[in-house]
Amino acid sequence: MLTMLVVSLGLALVPPAAATPDGAVVPPRLESNKPVPACAPSGSSSLFSALHQAKVADKDVPSPSGVSDAEARKAIMRLSSPKPALREEGLRMLRTFTTPEGQWAIYHASRGAEGPIKLQVLEHLASLGSSGQAGLTWIAIHDRDAAIRNEAAERIEQPPSNEALAVLEGALRSPNHMVVNQAGLLAGQINAIKAIPLLIAAQFAQDPVQDQSDLAWIAIGTQRSYVANLIPITGNSSAGFQPVIGQIYEGVVMAIDEAAAVATTYRPGVHQSLMALATLDSGQSTAHLGWDLNAWVAWYNDTYLPILAARAAEARPASEPK
What we know:
The protein is an alpha+beta fold and 322 residues long.
């Protein structure tokens, strides 16, 4: 039985090839029945790379401990003040929320604020380097407002940092279909080439169907009609009967009331971004691969990895001292 995320069916972590002197690494091959390789180095995860888990159940994520919600709300209120002195004080307070926990607190406090205030928070996160990039990536995937998601995505550096990739990876591995689809769209928007293996696996998912009612039935028999009743009808100097026709079925009925069934959910945002990134980076059209997971895996192993290996080989002598 396949789980909600197709990444579980596939794609192996084989020891990667040695890095070339300029840092280029040929990714591992993809193999069935093994985990999908990570698109960011281990240790690149952050607070924001784990916050998506609460979104699986469509619950609001609580503010992490160690950060004063009251201070964050106070900063947002001052930023919203019509008085220039208070707005300046709010801006000074905003700049103090630099840790991942602080970033989350100020973002959470700004969710009910007006658009310009939210944009100031996004600009603040964009000024915080890789840590802020992780926060922007989380917002670009999870925020309820499509306009804010787009504004956050516009502020993510390209190519994305390892911290941003770690957040993207966590979302692509989520069992929440909406989260995965939005993460796939973002991957295409920020040119996340390293996420191609995860995009291949996350194009669709198959979920078990939990249904105990009748799923299907087949009837083989004969239907016979008979007079089940007579309704008397009277009139002037006359009487009669109206027959009531009944039906008798003779034969057998085969009913299926329980089965191991799965429902396939296609994620068009993931698929579209995958085709765009794969075609762009390989220089070859991938439209013919469609939704065929096996064809994508074969393309990745037999076509794409040799292209990356050739690039790494060309880069190696250029970086060596002469």
